[in-house]
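Table 4 source record.
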Amino acid sequence: MEKNPRIYLFLIPGFFGFDQVGGINYFHHVKDYLESHLRERGFDPEIEAVRTLPTASIRRRSARVLETIDSTVDQEAPIHLIGHSTGGLDARLLTSPGVDLPTDIDPEKHLDKIDSVISIATPHNGTPLANYFNSLSGKNLLYVLSLFTVYSLRFGHLPLSILFYLTGYLMKF
């Protein structure tokens, strides 16, 4: 009996994305759906949701994708990258010729095995919002939003008065 061919899929979350937070999975049902359909078509999929650094630079996020590939892939098999939003930019940078990433792993080690890069809702032409979040005020706002998100996931809600106070306080810097 012929063994089903192995393939690797890496799901890359977008900006402010996460693998799993407070029981909420970023790629809710996507992993199960892909695995089921690929098995029906005769493949043996290894599907990994990449644990990126949510607000890091694209270079650092791409390095994390490469490190995940390096620690996951244990045999010669095609690799497919599926990036949502900024995750698509991470995958695109990783597969760019001559890429220089902040990691000890040589990207060339895996690039010849990457068969496809799929980007979903990826801002390939940039976004004005990204420019704002590169400013000090934007970084402070991201910090407040991350606190708000984690607190809300953990406790179910955050009083709006606290949110407004924190936002106003951090916007002064």
